[in-house]
Amino acid sequence: MSTISTALRNFKEPTKEQLTQIFFSVPNTPSTPTPAAGNGTDKTPPPSQEIEKMDINAVLSLGVQGEEDSYAGKLYIMAPYLAFASLDRKSVRFTIPLSTIRRVERLNARAGIYALSLSTWHGAKIIVQLTSLRPTADLFCSLLRDALKVELQRGQMRAVKGFVKTCYSEALISTTSTVADNEREDGSLISEEKEDAAPRESTYHGGLGLKFKFPGDPKKLREASKIKLWTQYLRVHGRNLTLLRYPQCTRLVQVGLPNRLRGEMWETLSGSVFLRFSNPGFYEELLEKNKGRSTTSTEDIEKDLHRSLPEYAGYQSEEGISALRRVLQAYSFMNPELGYCQAMNILAAAILIYMSEEQAFWLLEVLCDRLLPGYYAPSMHGTLLDQRVFEALVQRCLPIIHDHFQEVDVQLSVASLPWFLSLYINSMPMIFAFRIVDCFFCMGPKVLFQVGLAILKINGEKLLQIQDDGGFLNLMRDYFASLGDSAHPNSPDPRARAITRFQELLLVSFREFSIITDEMIQSERRRFRSEIIHSIESFSKRSAIRNLKTLGRFSKEQAGLIYDALYKAMCIVPPPPELQLLTAPALVATGDVGTMTEEKPETRIGLKTFQFFLSEIATWARDERIVSNGFQRRVDREIAEHEFIDRLFFFWDTSCRGALSFQDLISGLDGVIFNDLMENIEWFFNLHDKNKDGFLTKDEVLTLSETFLFIFRYEVGDAYLGAVSRFMTNAFEYGDALQPETGEAPIINEQGGETPPAVPTNQPYLNLATFRMVVLADEVLESFFETDLSASFRLEPLPEMELPVSSSGLLGDIWSTIATDNNKKMFNMFTDEIGKTIGKHQVVHRPSIGRYTKLEEPKLRESLLTPSMRHSASKSSLSAESTQTIATSTSTSSTLSVDVNVGAGKGSLPSSNSSYTPHPMLQAANIASFMERTPFAIDDAKDDEDESDEDLEDGENDDQVMDEVDAFLEAHDSGLTDADKEVAKDLLHAEPVK
Amino acid sequence: MADSAASGSVDKSVQVKLVLLGEAAVGKSSVVLRFVSNEFQANKEPTIGAAFLTQKCRLEDRVLRYEIWDTAGQERFHSLAPMYYRNAQAAVVVYDVTKATSLEKAKSWVKELQRQANPNIVIALAGNKVDLVQASASSPSVPASSESEDEADDATATPGETPSSSEPESLRQVPREEAQAYATEAGLLFFETSAKTGEGIVDIFTEIAKKIPIEHILAATRGAAGRPGASGSRPGAAAEGSVNLDGNTKPKDACNC
Ligand SMILES: Nc1nc2c(ncn2[C@@H]2O[C@H](COP(=O)(O)OP(=O)(O)O)[C@@H](O)[C@H]2O)c(=O)[nH]1
Ligand SMILES: [Mg+2]
Predict the structure, then answer these.
(1) What is the pLDDT of residues A974-992, one digit of tens each?
(2) Domain topology for B15-253
(3) Record: contact B120-A539, CB cut-off 8 A
(4) How far, in Å, is the centroid of ligand 2 from the Cα of B24?
(5) Which of A55, A169, A710, A884 is 20 to 30 A off residue A237, Cα-Cα?
(6) What structural domains and CATH numbers belong to chain A?
(7) How far apart, in Å, are the Cα atoms of A540 and each of A800, A920, B109?
(8) B213 chain-A contacts, CB cut-off 8 A
(9) Interface membership of B45 toward A (CB under 8 Å)
(10) What is the pTM of this model?
């Protein structure tokens, strides 16, 4: 009753190119969603041309007031996107769709300087100086030109206009620029696009917050000031599709996004906006196509809808609930393999406060696919991995806390698991969690780790007092509840007193743990990935074994070896997907539901996988050739194919599904491995008695003989051949002779007189007793059934399978390309060829039984057979194997040592129905459920309507908003020398060529 | 591990870690809620990992402090369960009497606990939602929740099989005898419960309390104080990961009571 998944084996470390793509949030073109369910929408045409990619050194200048600095970095073309990152990879960066580039001009500049001016849809003029060699620059330009042309042909340029109207920032800019232009910015850049200001009001996407209010008090959150600052920023630096991220952007994000803009900024910063842009209508169509579909995911979703931020007004209404339902269902339809995982409901509920369903849907995709990879997968390997990484970081950065946890045996994950799984939303007051989410989308997944470390660091002293998991959770809960309090309540300095514990948390996160980078996270993940895969796999192995209905006569360790062989077979010959989760004739709603018990999905394998499996276990189910060619001696193993193996497959398929489960294999093997002579003969007989009438037909006798020949095909000498031919002779002789006597058998003897030869080949002919007699008459066959048959099934520990390559860097890459199976094959072929030419090539088949090894050509062969082979041939391999196994494979599941005396306490306890009731006095205080999202009063939505600058007290300058972060932001490095800056400045005034 | 110095040295309570396991929606959270605050309500239960609650109880002259870990979640959270049941002294494995598969799942949890958890763990099996298979008349004092869906079907003790046509439908899919027999065989405490009516709920925790070797826990606690370097007992710590999937458990001996 288990499912066995080999999915983790297929994991591949992202290539360097993919990492760049991930960094720039460029959608993964091949995985641009094709809804697997409800037969694919052919919405996204597969990109026929291969994507042109190139990068080039460049210096970026914006040349507007406030952004005079130029930045050296790299410009990338990843059609259909253009991207830039400054050398430090964080000061300045952008990713913009090529379709938003309105004009490209080559600038007329000093000799030897190659510069382009790019105008974006929003009027920003980006000047890039290509500092690579001239031919490289030329190539880059021509690539850019071609890519732009393609976009034009695809009509993407036209799509931009409609799309940007769905973004709140457009409304923001257009309204504020008409309302109060008391600011000193020059409106020249945007003046031209005021033309279509008319229908903007209601077209932009927004979240539930617009109707149900946003969490928190807008005044305290200084919404008005934030909006003002963002308006200024977005006007100059572009917005939504064309946003250019300068240091100020990160700073503004760190003080918290304003509620109304938050949804759009999330999708912009995460890059999900590109998915929405390039898949218009996809979300609606997906829902339409899958309307009314019910899956396990949709059932699970249903259970959680009312437990997702239930304290928020929007989720006390049907409107919010059904939006949440649609988004989660749509995601599960698009990605059925992941489906739905608890915690996604929290995420979806959170983001839906700030963004529309369609926006939330694409953001969810980016979260599950890129930002939190593997977190919500069925094995949750990403979650487990990051918990492990987090623990390692705690060990490194906060060793004292780590040691204390070790000492008192507290598991970090009991608290930190939900932090990561729900981006802190489930742990903190929403208004604070959302600010962490802001930073997360802006600065990447490292933020989760930085904040986690900071939480522990800030609570360090108290953490050293805790003694168990429960105490840890209590402490954390109290801390999160106090985030709104002053961090320094007793400080004489009012400014210090004004700093909240939350601000302190961010400060510590980004200042003290700035050493934590995304690259570090990546490499830590690589470090622990195989460990995590191992532990997941060994966990599922143990549950698979535990969930067997019967182990038969096998020990757990032996069952483990069988599991290993099965697992290996599934990795190498994956069963067709429809078999993987073969359910019983499902409980279809045909009427009387409930009578039939629903069966759990169970992994089963088909014939092909079975052949591989058996080749791992039974010596005759593989062809092993011992090859020596003067360079090496090796054993080439191939899977044998024979009717006998198919026969075994169907013989073990007792429930007639055309597929075998782990249980079937265990039971099947149990039916042969432990047999004695008589049982083996009977087993072999039954295997060939297709209709199970207790008789073999003549045909079946022949088949059985062929089976013998198959099993003995590589035996040395004539002994077996002789035995089989004697068997056939005797079988027919006895069969014919005994024919009249086996009168009980319902022989329809039509041709009365001449009994023996006239028995049709498909009529009952030989019964078990006769068969036994014939077999026992032959010494070779007798020993085969006595020991060799059972011993030909060998449960041996498999060598460790290679995990997905986890080494990285150049060396890792090279090694991984060399060490593939294919290359090994090539190497083998190569050496074989040489061996042949020098006359040293030899191939010898390894016998399956190997009893009579010394009959012929002893010299040559004996040298090839290892002593242990000859040794084990004659005795049951099981006992020997199992002892060996116990030593090797049980070490992981070591059991507990004896735990003092159990009986001690019993006598002293009053046994009658003593006065045992929940203690009333103590009750009230104890109802605390920590991982449950506790509603925090601070999140209560306040009226947002009267928000305006006038509400701010006089002394409250907008700039003060920035105070809290300016303190800890490091200086940004433009990566340029003064001379470089001069050149860049020049370019701002350069004229286009021609 | 200076226990006396740690929290509540005055308090003579014994701390018992208890974990709830069982298929989703069998009523684990409801059972806990009934026990901890004696109410039954639509849940807004934890959805990530487990909820952690505490409840103090008095047993004779001794105060027991239950530390309850109410695991939540889908099948895919299963691999996280060891994190919650490690070191537990007691477990309540819940199934739903109206859903046969939930008993299968419960059995599998029991097996897992017996193999992977603390060897002295006291396990109780609870067949919940028994109110659904009782005639309203026979259900014990139900003050709060007399909802419309309280079906009146015969309080037949032979449920499951052949609901005769006169008896509209018995929702019961797990006969009491069957579960009882299994529990006896596996050495579990057994109760049929209803979080809705409160039936059997307190009994679970009472019986567990009686069965728990409290003296033993106390002794272990005392013993641990003198044991040098508890951290030495985690040799495989590095390989263990923060989420302990290996199910290696060691008896928990630290306890701040
Ligand atoms: N009739 C009835 N319903 C119950 C009982 N216990 C729980 N439920 C309902 O079963 C559903 C699942 O309960 P919940 O406690 O969330 O289950 P969990 O997933 O195991 O924690 C909820 O709708 C409960 O109201 C019970 O004793 N009787
Ligand atoms: Mg629950």
Answers:
(1) 667 777 777 777 777 777 7
(2) Rossmann fold (3.40.50)
(3) no
(4) 7
(5) A55
(6) 50-165+168-200 (2.30.29.30), 381-516 (1.10.472.80)
(7) 17, 43, 14
(8) 902-906
(9) yes
(10) 0.77
